[in-house]
Amino acid sequence: MLDGIEHDWRKEFKRLEGAYAPSTMRSYYSDVEIFLNWCNDQNLPPFPASVETVCRFLEEQAPDRAPSTVRRRLYAIRKVHRLLRLDDPTYAEDINLTFRRIRRAKRTRPKQAKGMTRPYLNKFLAVQPDNPWGLRNRAMLLLGYELLTRRSELVALTTNDLETLADGTMRVIIRRSKADPFGQGRVAFTSKSTADAVEEWLKWRGTEFNFLFCPIYRGRAVNRDLSTTTVKRLVKSAAKAAGLEPAEIEAFSGHSLRVGAAQDLLCAGYDAAAIMRAGGWKSVNILGRYLEMAEHNVWA
Predict the structure, then answer these.
(1) Cβ contacts of residue 7 below 8 Å, gap of 6+?
(2) Yes or no: is domain 118-291 CATH 1.10.443.10?
(3) How far apart are CA 122 and CA 65, in angstroms?
(4) Which pTM value belongs to this model?
(5) Which residues touch 294 (CB under 8 Å, ≥6 apart)?
């Protein structure tokens, strides 16, 4: 019977494809598999699951995982029950109370990437090599900083997303992001120096490629996009080349460009509305987490 149910939920999950991001789909599949294996080990029926079963599962998942991971697994259980048209146990008050206890027990603050503020950005730019990789890396660092992009947004940019304006700056359309699943896009702008760096990269790369940034193999551009891990590697390698201490290097991530630019805008005197507009934030609470570590003394 379980084999049939497992086959059914996988078949039903295919209905979600295209409606959710691929990363969300991978997480859903993984989370349901984890729940299924746990139920099999406990000799408990997974579909439909009882309220007590879901509570036990969440409690056992909690000690070694962030509350956000536990919540995501709860959502996966909810989704599979709804797709299979089964009674959904996940809205019961006992589930709510269990999750509140999990959150209260984990009082650690969310880990925030170290912001690549302008002083760090300048150091990272200075250590880039004088070759095609350096051209690309400088353009990526500058554009990621001024557009306040996530890693996925930066590597997804295409040459058609750029428009050079009369003053030499660029207008850039960021077409899809984590906070914009339906692809309405947002518009951002660059400085002239960043536009010049992008033009230098394009002059070497050529105009025949679609993706703005691409791999380089044996000194030649390759016609495909970069992975998001390339951004993280670029930031880490630049931090190492700049001579930073290992602990400081570890604190940087591919998200540091977005964090650092937001912190710099705050210190420059821009208000929350302007920063949200620049970075595409929909929630001032989320923006607040980015700005927590900004070196901004309002009394100075």
Answers:
(1) none
(2) yes
(3) 37
(4) 0.72
(5) 115, 262, 263, 266, 267
